[in-house]
Amino acid sequence: MANSKNRDSKKDRIIAAALKLFSQKGFHGTTTKEIANECGVAEGLIFYHFGDKRKLLLHIVKNFSFAIQAQKVDEYLSGRTLEEALVQYGLEYLRFLKKHIDYLMLIWSPEMIQDEAVSQEVFQLIGSIGSAGGSMLKQGMEMVPAAEGTYEVAMSMLTSSIFLYFMIHYRFGQNAFMYDEESYVRKLVQLLLHGLYGQSQQN
Questions:
Q1: Are 151 and 134 in contact (CB under 8 A)?
Q2: What is the pLDDT of residues 81-121, one digit of tens each?
């Protein structure tokens, strides 16, 4: 049991070190030896756990995504109004962005944008976030009819706006917007719901 935990701990350290170095130096500019030195493990352990540096990269891209959290629809909706559920969802996404800035810097770097396999993974992850969020919105608005794909588009707009808010804050500082985080997310949610309810009335 202890050995298993130790292996998992070393594996997690490899992932954290690789993510840090990939985001700072680039994938091609980072060696497995540097990753091993950064996290204090034998270089061979990287190959044991991941096969090679390329597979390590793809593992990071696949597993540092908000998509997993976004799928917990019932947790967000339990005991909350739809507006409050969406606000909590949005704030959770914002916290994820803050926590994983190295991940964002990596997947949106020019080097990774030109990487077809990574771009495909990122595209699928973005789609899965929209799909999971759309499921929550659809469940919360079950009595409100909407055209196919409307909820997914609405949630993609919400997360995209939050992502833009985060990036502007990261680039220009906390005074870049007049609204604090919760107020901004709540405004977005209210606009989203107003648009959906208004559309249903028109139909």
A1: yes
A2: 889 989 999 999 999 999 989 999 999 999 999 999 999 99
For residue 182, what are its two tokens? 């919760």
Residue 19 contacts residue 106 (beta carbons within 8 Å) = yes
pTM for this predicted structure: 0.81
Alpha carbon distance 48, 64 (integer Å): 21
Within 10 angstroms of residue 52's Cβ, the number of other Cβ atoms is: 10
State the Cα–Cα distance between residues 153 and 200, nearest whole angstrom: 15
Count Cα atoms within 13 angstroms, Cβ side, for 140: 26
151-178 b/e (C-beta count within 10 Å ≥ 16 → b)? bbebbbebbebbeebbeebeeeeeeeee
